[in-house]
Write the structure tokens for this entry.
Amino acid sequence: MISNSDKMGLRYPPMAFTEQGVAMLSSVLNSKRAIQVNIQIMRAFTQLRQMLASHDDLRQKIEEMESKYDEQFRVVFQAIQQLLDKDLQPGKKIGFLKENSDDYKAGWRRPGPMSSRFYHTHAQNYFNQTIEVDPSSFLLPLVKHLAPGSTVLDVGCGSGRDMLWLTERGFYCTGLERSPDLAALARQHTGLLVIKADFESYDFSRMNMNGLLLIGALVHLPHERFSPVLSNILKALKPGGHALITMKQGEGRQKLEDGRVFYLWEKEYLFSMFKRSGLICVDYSVQSSQVRLSDTWMSFVLQKQENHLDIP
């Protein structure tokens, strides 16, 4: 239908019809060809509705299958579930943020842009620099607490080096990486699932992992952001599961020539933070960095307590 241009209506033929518009045309155009065309268009709309309905059916079938099969297939179901979910991460708000608003405060507390940008613009160099490091010295203490065939989520997986090491020893690993270039390199290197996502906003509540890896993943977080971000990530870990967290030892913060900012921690303060998050330390060690000898890293193997409530 085309409205009357004399009454400020539509001046050009429409480029598309709604399903209701096609039905209206059927009562106006009576030729055989017009009727056949209208029938085909109505069938197309019917097929679209069926496709949308089958999306929900597929989701339901996956959930039913997930409840039947064992832990070895859980990672596969999680990957399919993420493809079905449309709203895993909220979109960015448009416009200026009001000063002193919650969004404004949250914005300046996030890791600096240089730290985040580094892993995007220098992805290949970072991959080359870290891929040959032997992770056995800091992964073995975690492995002692994991049953054979355990599921492990590597948050901030970088090159994928650590989850490949675990996979070769019989564990089922999934990676999560914020940098799209690093995520692609990790997928190519390991052949494993790597989710491209920001761990600060990602919904971990659908996961139910036996183990968590946070190898240097939290070092760019300002101290005041550490506790809420860790609480969000811990939603992926089942009660009784174990997490391996490595942090740089020191006071204040450290800025490198490449623009990255690292936040440093004291052991006792981290212990208190872990306790408030419902984590018990079962193994602790200190070692120098294999990449930068001047850096000292603390390694914590932590067990998640049953029925813990976060302390604000």
